[in-house]
Inverse folding.
């Protein structure tokens, strides 16, 4: 296990390194730069050159990368070009806000989706299954921003039950009750979107397991159906679900751009778009790296969970069954 | 299993990055003038305004919340270039001189100047006397030292202040006494009076900051360290969320009625409009014209449809190198005039702009003192006349119906910025209108930052659809049309060259008398509107909608035609929650 973890760690470092090189290169290859948005068009080329020099943007891209990497390893994410604000001051609040929204709706969707999927697998094509199908189609097909606007129109503007947007009311910053009220609408949108996938996954993965010989054996032995489902089938069916969840874990940090925009949620998705438009390289790199770390971590957690769910899984050994 | 997953995680991380890159390309927010290239320049109009909610007696207290689709960059006045920071600056900083409703330089009770500027006989010396009771928010007096320090800092190229262009005619700045300073110009430059309608920065706070460090210094981004001069103090900045300003209890001028100002940032313009309807915010500037009808129907809101201080144009490149076949199709004025006749500009205003705008024939805003009125040549929508002019100029229909001349097809690419719904709409109409007379237009939407970098700044394009924001009410526009100001020195990125016009710009800035200047700009307008370096389109609006609980006297109502005019005289406004 320890050996495995070390190997995974080394692999992850390599992955993160490659991601950073690719992202850094792509960003600098994109036309336009932070100075174009800062420097007034009438400014003399000399002054523009001074500006570029002051910001270190006149150095070759590989040199800039090395400087960035060195600082990053020291834990210094840099400063914004536009106004020299520490990148951490911009990013950490957004990470926190996104985590609040995303984990709330993620947990909520799991609580609903997995039991629902399991239930549906036992009553294929029943009313509940048909309903789930319908909800799934809606969840996949409906543009999230549009659904968000519809919710706002009805619950906030028309009925005035819930706040329209933002994370807190202006005069209730930091109030948990207020936060909860603000969470309801954006979470509804996100839950509907997540639900679609998760119900499908858990249902089909259960169905697959239920057709296995050992399930038939268990039933033939006279094991009660309840026990068949929860003891024998579910544990095996969970493995593919965990894979999907592990991959989705990164989105808890990356955020949901459209939903965040519609509900004016000050999170990562919104930040990334904003920063991409003004070519804030240091912020963009920080967001990319945080997301990449989350992806790597998500996969690692999934691997470890396999082991917990299925003791037969021998982590890290070639030929281990999964 | 293990080896498979490694690749998966790499692929997933990469696809997250690329998906976000794609995402940012097609997302949209502001089609307000926030994405306009900013430029210090002319004109304003005194359009008649519809009645605003008023009456009653001012009362103190209350909160004004306004919405914005961008966060500030820095409120340090010498670096403010973007509308968002400029909005905040209106509340936090006093100006030496203010601009009155008619666009003239004025001394208001809240201006730092005590009396009008004195200009010497030869037009070279500007003497300014400051009020002797003005104080910074930390209690220190505002003196001539601060003014001289500000101007010297801006003039220092190391500071990288964008305002430096306004001071390139200055030879020296000196302190006369504690509250008086004098600026001497190298040559007569009439627009300089507008340069003095500026904010200043506190010397006692910033004197030890090196000019090259100034832009990175926390002054302007840290509320606690940003000592200000205006009616409100900066109390909080939660990035990407909001800023708050509180009335400064020790403010030296007439006290503002509104106690607290909240500047709320919205990621999405539609959400901002919804928030206005809901009452979360009280004022929004630059609401999309498509939402105007909805807003007008709300009892608690009032909408000002007056077009603002900005105009749109088709910039025609005059440099042959920029065309594939090194041939400028519109090298003759006749062809350019034909294009102007071919365009249904009023139709664009009615349909795309929903009536918020007015046709412009020369780059001087209607209603200003430099408005050329009938002196400018007007082009009606007249496709027949356009066809006739094109034929006279030697254009003949080719096989596919597109005009040809000397073996060149009349076809060009029209660039504009992606996500700007107004320009998207107008570009389609342009394409259709010009196709009707046999000209092929290929509209192309580009990401703004990349567009500025690769096309606008270096002047490399065939034609562009863009606007100018007119932040300075002076009509001089030499840096846009003057032959000395082609890239990289200036903003004449269409490479226009007209010696006669060059001479007029020179005369215009070296004449101090305003009536005489108006005559000169009338001549300039005549040339511009017949020679058409651009095809001037229309003055357009960024309509402001506000809650009726914001109250003001008639003389303090917002003035759409001024830069930041939606906050005009906000110091005199008050909030009445009982509607």
């Amino acid at each position: 296990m320890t050996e495995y973890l070390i190997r995974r760690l080394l692999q992850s470092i390599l992955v993160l390194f490659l991601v950073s090189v690719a992202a850094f290169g792509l960003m600098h290859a994109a036309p336009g730069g932070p100075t174009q948005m800062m420097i007034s068009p009438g400014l003399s080329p000399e002054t523009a050159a001074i500006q570029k020099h002051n910001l270190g943007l006149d150095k070759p891209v590989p040199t800039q990368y090395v400087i960035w990497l060195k600082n990053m390893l020291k834990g210094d994410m840099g400063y914004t070009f536009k106004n020299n604000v520490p990148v951490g001051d911009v990013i950490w609040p957004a990470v926190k806000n996104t985590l609040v929204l995303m984990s709330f709706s993620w947990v909520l969707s799991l609580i609903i989706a997995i039991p629902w999927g399991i239930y549906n697998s036992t009553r294929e094509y029943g009313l509940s299954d048909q309903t789930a199908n319908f909800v799934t189609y809606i969840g996949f097909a409906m543009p999230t921003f549009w659904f968000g606007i519809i919710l706002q129109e009805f619950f906030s503007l028309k009925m005035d039950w819930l706040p329209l947007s933002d994370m807190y009311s202006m005069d209730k910053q930091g109030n948990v009750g207020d936060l909860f009220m603000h969470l309801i609408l954006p979470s509804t949108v996100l839950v509907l979107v997540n639900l679609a996938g998760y119900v499908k996954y858990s249902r089909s993965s259960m169905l697959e397991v239920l057709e296995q010989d050992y399930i038939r054996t268990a039933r033939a032995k006279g094991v009660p159906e309840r026990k068949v489902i929860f003891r024998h089938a579910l544990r095996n069916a969970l493995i593919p679900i965990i894979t999907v969840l592990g991959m989705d874990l990164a989105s808890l940090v990356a955020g949901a751009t459209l939903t965040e925009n519609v509900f004016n949620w000050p999170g990562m998705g919104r930040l990334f778009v904003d920063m991409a438009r003004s070519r804030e390289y240091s912020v963009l790199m920080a967001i990319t790296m945080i997301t990449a770390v989350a992806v790597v971590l998500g996969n690692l957690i999934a691997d470890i969970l396999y082991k917990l769910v299925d003791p037969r899984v021998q982590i890290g050994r070639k030929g281990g069954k999964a | 299993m293990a080896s498979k997953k490694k690749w998966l995680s790499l692929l997933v991380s990469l696809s997250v990055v690329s998906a976000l890159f794609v995402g940012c390309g097609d997302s949209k927010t502001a089609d307000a003038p926030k994405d306009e290239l900013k430029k210090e320049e002319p004109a304003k109009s005194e359009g008649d305004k519809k009645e605003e909610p008023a009456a009653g007696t001012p009362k103190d207290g209350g909160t004004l919340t306004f919405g914005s689709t961008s966060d500030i960059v820095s409120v340090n006045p010498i670096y403010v270039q973007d509308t968002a920071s400029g909005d905040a600056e209106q509340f936090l900083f006093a100006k030496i001189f203010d601009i009155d409703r008619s666009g003239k330089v004025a001394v208001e009770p809240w201006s730092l100047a005590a009396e009008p500027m004195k200009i010497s006989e030869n037009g070279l010396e500007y003497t300014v006397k400051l009020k002797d009771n003005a104080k910074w928010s930390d209690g220190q007096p505002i003196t001539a030292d601060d003014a001289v320090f500000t101007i010297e800092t801006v003039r220092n190229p190391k500071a990288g202040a964008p305002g430096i262009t306004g001071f390139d005619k200055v030879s020296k700045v000196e302190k006369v006494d504690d509250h008086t300073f004098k600026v001497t110009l190298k040559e007569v430059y009439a627009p300089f009076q507008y340069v003095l309608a500026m904010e200043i920065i506190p010397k006692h706070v910033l004197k030890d900051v090196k000019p090259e460090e100034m832009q990175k210094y926390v002054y302007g981004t840290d509320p606690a360290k940003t000592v200000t001069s205006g009616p409100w103090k900066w109390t909080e900045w939660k990035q990407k969320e909001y800023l708050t300003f509180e009335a400064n209890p020790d403010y030296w001028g007439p006290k503002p009625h509104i106690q607290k100002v909240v500047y709320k940032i919205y990621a999405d313009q539609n959400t901002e409009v919804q928030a206005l309807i809901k009452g979360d915010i009280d004022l929004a500037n630059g609401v999309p014209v498509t939402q105007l009808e909805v807003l007008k129907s709300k009892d608690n809101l009032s909408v000002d449809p007056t077009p603002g201080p900005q105009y749109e144009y088709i910039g025609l490149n005059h440099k042959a190198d920029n065309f594939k076949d090194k041939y400028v199709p519109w090298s003759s004025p006749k062809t350019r005039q034909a294009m102007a006749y071919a365009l249904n500009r009023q139709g664009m205003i009615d349909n795309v702009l929903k009536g918020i705008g007015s046709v412009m024939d020369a780059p001087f805003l209607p209603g200003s003192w430099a408005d050329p009125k009938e002196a400018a040549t007007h082009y009606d929508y007249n496709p027949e006349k356009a066809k006739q002019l094109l034929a006279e100029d030697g254009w003949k229909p080719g096989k596919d119906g597109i005009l040809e001349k000397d073996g060149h097809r009349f076809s060009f690419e029209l660039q504009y910025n992606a996500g700007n719904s107004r320009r998207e709409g107008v570009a389609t109409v342009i394409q259709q209108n010009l196709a009707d007379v046999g000209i092929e237009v290929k509209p192309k939407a580009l990401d703004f930052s990349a567009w500025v970098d690769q096309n606008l700044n270096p002047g490399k394009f065939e034609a562009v659809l863009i606007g100018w924001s007119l932040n300075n009410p002076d009509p001089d526009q030499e840096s846009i049309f003057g032959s000395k100001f082609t890239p990289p020195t200036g903003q004449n990125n269409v490479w226009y060259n007209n010696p006669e016009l060059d001479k007029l710009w020179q005369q215009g800035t070296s004449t101090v008398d305003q009536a005489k200047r108006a005559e000169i700009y009338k001549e300039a307008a005549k040339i511009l509107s017949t020679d058409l370096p651009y095809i001037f389109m229309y003055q357009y609006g960024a309509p402001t909608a506000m809650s009726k609980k914001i109250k003001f006297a008639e003389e303090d109502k917002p003035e759409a035609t001024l830069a930041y005019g939606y906050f005009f005289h906000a110091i005199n406004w008050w909030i009445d929650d009982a509607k």
In short: Chain B touches chain A through 72 residues (CB under 8 Å).
